[in-house]
Amino acid sequence: MKTLIILILSFLLFSYSISAEEKNGAITEIVKNSEVKVLEKQINIQLKALKDELALRSKPMEKWYLFGAVILGAVIGFFFTEISARRRRKEEQIEKQKTLTDNIVADSLKFIFKTRDTIDNIITKKQQYLNLKETNRPAAAEFHSRLMNDCDEDLRKGFYTELNFHSFQLNRLRNQEIWKRYGNIVNVQSKLFAMLFKDDSLDDVKKTKDQWRELVKEFTSYCIEITKVKP
Description:
Elements: H1 2-24, H2 29-135, H3 137-172, H4 176-196, H5 202-226
Helix pairs in contact: 1-2, 2-3, 2-5, 4-5
């Protein structure tokens, strides 16, 4: 700023002197040209000094601008990196939850299908018992006793343990709909087992079994829906 002021004042002073000398007729063309050259030289010197001063002043500003740009870039980079990391963690959590759901549902369906086979086996044996009862009561009584012992052993061996385990697993999903559907199956299933071990007619047993099978069908369809693989 100081150099600029000196430059302006020098130019004004020189212009004023030239104008005064021209008025007084005290300046010749040669002198005039010589003084103009001197002024030009001085102006060039002052301009160079001015440029140097501006350059010196601009360097700290450039450093600050560069420093600010680096900080801003780092903040923006951190911001987008954090967003990306959060999105990735969320996707991993969703994928982990889906894998857990798929495994629990698959194991529960496997247990239900195994229970279906057990029920069918008991119904078949009960049919054999009722047929034998009409022709050979002592043999039928022996067959019935063996059937009850086998069923009781199978149930005590692992059925109720598996039933409780899969109930616990499904309850972990905190899905009220699947829990309600599973509970309906278990309730009808308990009723069905009681009928199989008593003297209820096979027609009543089969009606209850049809009701149970329909619940299993609906449960299976719902499980397929919530574990469907996305394209």
